[in-house]
Design goal:
Strand content: 5-15%
Number of strands: 15
Mean pLDDT: 94
CATH topology of one domain: FAD/NAD(P)-binding domain
Number of helices: 17
Shape: globular
């Protein structure tokens, strides 16, 4: 196994569960990929390098099947999964309980419930279907067909068709903006739908101690199954690996091309060369002397805050990014974990994590624009800053080679690259003993481990593996 991100660890666990001897090679000094926690600013301030809030990890069919709590993973739920402030000093919140959400959304409450309730009610089946390979026959076709009615169109179209109030439309736009797509593009609404449904079904929790707790729990379970993890070992060629019958790669197409050295067919290499990466992020980690001084007190109830104002503003920000430009008022995603997990900073101090979307590989310094958006809704924020750590796209990639150009999604997720990711083979490559299991394969980005689970399951079913090897099937559990 090359790479120990959540997908690589998930794939390794599947193989170990099937009785195979597994060794994971990780380039960095600690496992986790983008799910790592480090002292990025000052001693005692524990920041998440990548992911911070984890609805898809909490709702992952594979992770839910593992005894991760036995290895120290504990989920913390903020009172509200999400807050979205406005310029008038108020905020709209996404409540976890669907009844509470209906009440909080007022005139749009019933419409919100009608949209989300089928997905929430059958979340387990829904999650299994959307996190499986795209071309697999779904177990819940009618539920997916209903989902597709609002998932395929652009987010702005769905928001205007479903909701009357500008505040609800802004809330949905912020959810859909997680797609890294222009909100005028097809499929952008699907991200808003999934993330909203997850908020009601499983919440948007943070792991106690940070994202590293997820990687640590997965690693501990793998070791318990007999697996081995070798850190600080960057694999530059397949020839570097010990003799093995199977290699799974939690890396993106660009790294796979560098490793291959004649192992892959020329046709498959050409397809990988045509793989397109998505937009990048500009990220800042903060050590703070106090909680963020939000104008809207509701923001103190949520671990995640979306900063972008109206749906029109958010759509303009994402459209600029999608067309290769930089938004003057970028949509900012912010997490404030220490309001709910004070162990991650010295007593009385806090951390925050914020990023905005920018074109892949951009070198423009977005710090002033990003902080202006925070100050817009929390005047005096800059006065609370003890230290900051700024990550440009190139610095993100330097910390994790999978984040090509700052792309945290493993590749562009627009319609033309949605079905066949990274090629029509999905997890398989032109080499019978090499598979991809990164977020560049279905179902894509997010901390859920399902790319790894799916890839390992496919590999175990191939003829190169002894026929008596058992293959787990989450859809039969």
């Amino acid at each position: 196994m090359i790479g120990s991100g959540p997908n690589g660890l998930a794939a390794a666990i599947v193989l170990a569960q099937a009785g195979m001897q597994v060794e994971v090679f990780e380039a960095e000094s600690q496992p986790g990929g983008a799910a790592r926690t480090m002292e990025l600013t000052l001693p005692g301030f524990h920041h998440d390098f990548g992911s911070a809030v984890h609805p898809m990890a909490a709702g992952s069919p594979f992770f839910s099947s593992l005894p991760l709590a036995d290895h120290g993973l504990e989920w913390i739920h903020s009172p509200a999964p999400l807050a979205h402030p406005f310029d008038d000093g108020t905020a709209i919140t996404l409540e976890r309980n669907l009844d509470d959400a209906e009440a909080a959304l007022g005139e749009d409450g019933r419409a919100w419930r009608n949209l989300m309730e089928p997905l929430v009610r059958d979340w387990d089946g829904f999650a299994q279907d959307i996190l499986q390979p795209i071309l697999r026959v779904p177990r819940h076709p009618f539920l997916l067909a209903r989902f597709a009615q609002d998932a395929i169109p652009p987010a702005t179209f769905v928001a205007r068709r479903r909701f009357r109030n500008h505040r609800t439309r802004a809330l949905f736009a912020g959810l859909a903006a997680h797609s890294f797509l222009s909100l005028h593009e097809p499929l952008s609404a699907s991200f808003g739908m999934v993330l909203a449904a997850a908020a009601h079904a499983v919440g948007w929790p943070i792991p106690r101690g940070g994202a590293q707790s997820i990687a640590n729990a997965l690693s501990a379970h793998l070791v318990q199954l007999g697996g081995k993890i070798t850190a600080s070992t960057r694999i530059a060629s397949f020839d570097q690996l010990p003799p093995c019958s199977l290699t799974l790669c939690d890396i993106t197409p660009r790294q796979l091309l560098r490793l291959s050295q004649g192992k892959l067919s020329s046709g498959y290499r050409r397809r990988l060369e045509n793989f397109r990466y998505g937009p990048g992020i500009f990220k800042v980690d903060y050590a703070l002397s106090a909680p963020i001084p939000w104008k809207a007190a509701e923001c103190l109830r949520a671990a995640t805050v979306h900063l972008g104002g109206s749906m029109g503003e958010i759509a303009a920000s994402e459209a600029a990014m999608a067309s290769g430009h930089l938004a003057e008022r970028p949509f900012v995603l912010l997490a404030q974990p220490t309001l709910f997990d004070p162990s991650r900073a010295p007593a009385g101090k806090h951390i925050a994590w914020a990023y905005c979307h920018i074109p892949n590989g951009s070198t423009f310094n977005m710090l002033e624009r990003l902080e202006a958006q925070i100050e817009r809704f929390a005047p005096g924020f800059r006065d609370c800053i003890l230290a900051r750590r700024v990550f440009s796209p190139s610095e993100m990639e330097a910390m994790d080679a999978n984040l090509v150009g700052g792309d945290i999604s493993g590749g562009a997720v627009d319609l033309s690259q949605f079905l066949f990711r990274p090629t029509w083979r999905n997890y398989a490559t032109s080499a019978k003993d090499v598979y991809l299991c990164s977020s560049s394969t279905p179902p894509g980005g997010g901390v859920h481990g399902m790319c790894g689970y799916n890839a390992a399951s496919v590999a175990l079913r191939r003829e190169t593996i002894p026929p008596d090897t058992s293959v787990p099937d989450l859809l039969e559990q």
